[in-house]
Amino acid sequence: MALGLRSYRPLVGGTTHMVSTGHYLATAAGYRILEQGGNAIDAGVAAGIVINVTLPQYTSFGGVAPIIIHHAESGDTREISGLGRWPGEASIDYFRREHGGDMPHGVMRTVTPAAPDAWLTALSRYGTMTFEQVVTPALELAEGGFPIPATLHRALVSSGDNIILDEGDTSQWASTMRIFYPGGRALGIGDLLVQTDLARTFRRLIDAERSGAGPGREAGIRAARALFYQGDIAEEMVAFIRSQGGWLSMDDLAGFAVGVDTPPMIDYRGASSASDGIEVYACGPWCQGPTNLHALRILEGCDLRGMGHNSADYIHTVLEALKLAFADRHAYYGDPDFGDVPMAGLLSREYADVRRREIDPRRANPEMPDAGNPWAHQAGSGRAARQPEPVAGPLSADTSYICAVDRWGNAFSATPSDGFGGVPIVPGLGFMVSARGSQSWLDADHPSSLAPGKRPRLTPNPALAFKDGKPWLPFGTPGGDVQPQSMVQLFLNVAEFGMDVQQAIEAPRASTWSFPNSFWPHAYRPGLVGIESRIAPSVVDELRKRGHDVDVWNEWTPRMGSLCAIEVDRERGALFGGADLRRDAYAMGR
Question: What's the predicted TM-score (pTM) here?
Fold first, then answer.
């Protein structure tokens, strides 16, 4: 570990188990499950559902939850694609005809809720506990309430701009207002947030699990799932969404299931360096996960250590590599069920060599680079999306993150999302239905265009790195399009510069925004770089000389995400957890 680097929080160490999440109460819940004898999957699911309660501005029980799991007993390393699909009635033509090509806030962005199936699938396949056991911490918090921290209060105030629309007409958002804006005002710091309807939903699922047909833990979990996707809860979701003009149907819910697949992976630097044996896994191109792998593949051929950490040369090189990865994300990523995505070519060393040579060490690309041709490095053929025009709009970001490891060698990494500002909360259920349709394009030629049954290209993307074939570093962050950028910098801080995970998380970060934002209306700000003010002014000056349009942000800005990570040190038999002080993240272990 790098000595002499200051960090503002202690590195949390342990030998038995460790959990790190985007909210301190979720971390406590995951730790509680581990102390009760649950494994990392049990703890991760418990923490994830608590995140759905405690970070409603960023996540929802009816939202998304992409997951990567390593299950030591079976040897499985799997992604769970906790991402919903567009309803069967959805169409691009509707938005063109009714909204002039815009995609307004509200239920028309709704896709099938995926988080419940993701949590239950992870628990059923790889956990050891019942749903009732893992949901109990979340139930207690929803029912008894918890004091609102400043971060949630600020989000309530800012989200009010989206919710209170149409000259004060809040009828569409009445269910949301009743919970978070009693009397028309946002709950204040220290006020108790009680979510009675959400607690009732959890109790209904528990009752279904208890009465499940057939013996065994899995039968009960299937019964809870059936209530959500085929039973009364499904009917209530559909009735509300359709009453607001949305498309969701019972057929959409009954036909939905998350995927469980082998995630894409790169062997970082191969077997010829001090970083021997590092394998990095990310979720597939239905999300932006491979952007991490593609950028690292490009950067592994650069002398990053020789440049010096956070020097102008280093930041310039990392940003230009990320621009190349984002250009290929824009051109090729989308639901692989609806088109071929050239993943083998994109992640090949030969293609990375080609892309790396496009980096000018003295001059920034003034816009998003042109897409490359990964098809030249694998079988098949295809075409890239068009180069975009600049678009004004916010650089949206939300989401949270969870990771856990246990004494048996299991690891869990998940990035739940979907806050209350996108779609009204379903009355009586206490959660909103995923609004991830906002990450689709209304351009039929785009690889992530809207289509019935298609998944939008998701921003949340957990990661999990291995050394010598065993889990070494689960890591991730919220932050929309900043996620792979902060994740790449965290990984390099540990793998290349020898930082411990807390130092690596706290180190100041930079970000590029020279690509279309993943959220509607896909704002595109060519050349823009956001950089934390702790980076030396001389470095900022040099970056500007190289052509970067640098915007200096606060020294600990939450716009850079909120990283969490756990390092498994097998040589010393230790676990080390880190969590970001940019938001409400904490780590805890024993």
Answer: 0.96
